[in-house]
Amino acid sequence: MGPLAGLKVLEFAGLGPAPFACMVLADLGADVLRIDRAGADNLLGMKNDFMERGRRSIILDLKSAEGLETARQLAGAADVLVEGFRPGVMERLGLGPAALSPRLIYARMTGWGQTGPLAQTAGHDITYLALTGALHAIGTAEQPLPPLNLPGDFGGGSMFLIAGILAALYERQRSGLGQVIDAAITDGASVLMTMIYAMRAEGLWKDQRAANLLDGGTAIYRTYVCADGKHVAVAPIERKFFEAFCARLGLNAAEWPDHTVAGALHARLAGIFLTKPRDEWCALFVGSDACVAPVLSLDEAPHDPHNTARGTFVEVDGVMQPAAAPRFSRSQPGAPRKRPAPGEGGAEALRDWLG
Description:
Elements: E1 8-12, H1 17-27, E2 31-37, E3 56-60, H2 65-77, E4 80-83, H3 89-93, E5 105-110, H4 125-130, H5 150-175, E6 180-184, H6 185-192, H7 194-201, E7 222-225, E8 231-234, H8 239-249, H9 263-273, H10 278-285, E9 292-294, H11 305-310, E10 313-316, E11 319-322, H12 346-354
Parallel strand pairs: 1-2, 1-4, 2-3, 4-5, 5-6
Antiparallel strand pairs: 7-8, 8-9, 10-11
Helix pairs in contact: 1-5, 5-6
């Protein structure tokens, strides 16, 4: 099921953006086979690692001749190979792209990229973001703050890896050849900052935090605490939305001809939102274009009426988790399958892939 049904993806077990990319490919129907290390279990030490859902697993000792040969055979049967090791590791194993089929899409996921002065050094999400300007732009006026690992690992890393894989598959239809994809978190995260760099070039973005339209520097694009200690997210940037926002609050929008300036408007709104609990405020804005939403907790979000109506979250084996995205009109993927234990489904996968 899913638009990628029939696509064979060979995944070398790793951390972060590579397994997340393979999760998305599996969610969309690809047959993902993960090569796990002998004696190793979940690399994150988690029982419910949703990023490992939807695969089958085979345990191979890549230091043995037998394990290497099986890996080569599986790579020969695959459409795509995904690995997230430091540059040169796969070559030292004898599994680099030059040793495998010229039709193979060889997708390499790293933080710094395959080349450059930092290519062989370790890092994590915020160290990659730090190099792109993104981390500098996120946080309070006094200090940059880690924005979870969403814009680096998964936005700049996984999503650009997936885009590269799909682009290479499309190109292979014309050329008949595979190619190597060098996906670096620093490169992808830099691309995600395109609009901010454009605004900076136009003089519309100050090179400081909490001083701009989209970073909490205005009264109409930020969160406000309510009487119960919970928060609402407010974002009526466009003038017509700001007018709808003021109408629901009983304010006169004409008092703020430039509503994107913080100043007195921020203090006024902060005081107003402190007078009622979050859910009362959100009920007031239902059906309007005021661009106000409750800031839901991780426990609340799966039960939100909109998320429930769309099936944004799904329960698998009694555990709630995000469902596959996006949606398709004809080849909608089924519910995600649970993560396999190391080796689970491997024998069946060998029969399916190698006959």
